[in-house]
Specification:
Shape: flat
Strand content: under 5%
Number of helices: 4
Oligomer: single chain
Largest sheet: none
Helix content: 55-70%
Order of helices and strands: HHHH
Structural class: mainly alpha
Length: about 120
Amino acid sequence: MTASTRRTVLSLYMRVFRIARNWQAQIGVVGDAETEKKYILHEASTLFRQNQQLTDPETIKRCVEECEARIEMGLHYRNPYPRAMHLPPLGLATQKGRKLRAQQRLRKQAKPVYLQSHDDS
């Protein structure tokens, strides 16, 4: 990892923690704000630790883009949780025995940038 990449990742990490410290819930309920702060801190620490061993510059770049997208969406919508993913047409298998690989490929292609680190569930 180059020095500039390391600096970018560390600044993103600190930015997420600053956002969590100053987070206000959308409707102003104190319990909700604390729950959302804990979620932000847990999600950030989990994902940054999970990706700590990455060395490929392209993979690191995708992770940084995902983090920036989640930050911007969270600040814009005042909601720290990832938005729901919409499946494309024919994204689910029918009961007529359709091949599952095509549906898996469609779901993978439809996955937005802010959900790349989450596995299919």
